[in-house]
């Protein structure tokens, strides 16, 4: 299959018309969002879902997120409620995905056989224009080959999907760099199934109690738990061994500097000059979870282009604004952590 690669802006009307038509007719289009790039298909078409799983090489029990142009469009296929609209008022369009009971028109292949559906209204203008042009809700996972880091640029998508899908829309680098916060609603609040840019403190101000699923900080806890199917797969891992070090900056640098083999380091920008022989990559400021999130997936992809046997990175703090970072990087490292401080 020939893959068309098109740069888009808010006013690329003709391109959105063509892309929307591909989606209506059952084909796939990769598109930018503020979190990561998505691989979109018609959410009402079971064949489109099959094509998504095939293009990604993804197990088909892992359900897809359904993207809408405005929050009330979810009425067509999900059973909404007051808390959904309260959340929508504060966080949509934006990087929040809400799990709701599904209606019968969403095929099982989209929800992995669950009786719930994940709803998200992206803020990226190109995503919004595409959904409007398609005229149907768009089911879309991240546009990477299953197991690889999610794509934060159209170049990443091209590398994974060239020849597998008819069209890639390039709307520039993703602003956030990690996937949306996924939540399940509870009687007295909500549970975070996957952490993202929107954090517990912000959700709590709107819905009350915020719980965090065990699988967020402990990949093994995901097991066969059908409530967070996506969390059980090994994800994001570079080809070289990735090892997280927990300790102060000094002991981190000492450990890296005394390592005998070829090594690379995902360094805080403050500590770039501390390494004697390691290949150094700038992971962003120690103080900025947002900067580190924006760079993480792109850096994990870059790791595959350098000649190293091991990559060292900091274990992020296990707390609110760093939780998304923690969740992604422990998965990438297969939970391999060395405690220098114990
Ligand atoms: O930021 C994002 O959410 C991106 C962009 C493209 O919107 N999409 C994305 O999709 O990350 P994906 O398929 O890579 O991740 C979807 C996550 C998985 O962890 C999946 O298990 C969870 O959402 N999920 C989807 N439907 C669910 C449901 N009905 N119940 C529980 N979890 C669900
Ligand atoms: Mg994904």
Which keywords apply here?
342 residues, alpha/beta, DHBP synthase, 28% helix, 21% strand, binds threonylcarbamoyladenylate, binds magnesium ion
Discrete helix count: 10
CATH class of the largest domain: Alpha Beta
Main beta sheet strand tally, sense and closure: 11 strands, mixed
- CA(first)-CA(last) distance: 54 Å
Can you describe what's shown?
By secondary structure, the protein is of the alpha/beta class. It has 2 domains: 176 residues, DHBP synthase (Alpha-Beta Complex); 99 residues, 3-Layer(aba) Sandwich (Rossmann fold). It is built from 10 helices and 16 strands. An 11-stranded mixed sheet has the order 1-8-2-3-7-4-6-5-9-10-11, sandwiched between helices. Strands 14-13-15-12-16 form a 5-stranded parallel sheet, with helices on one face. A hairpin with a 2-residue loop joins strand 9 and strand 10. Helix 9 runs parallel beside helix 10. The longest helix has 14 residues. The protein is globular and about 60 Å long. The model has no long low-confidence stretch (mean pLDDT 95). The site of threonylcarbamoyladenylate has 30 residues, from strand 5, strand 6 and strand 10.
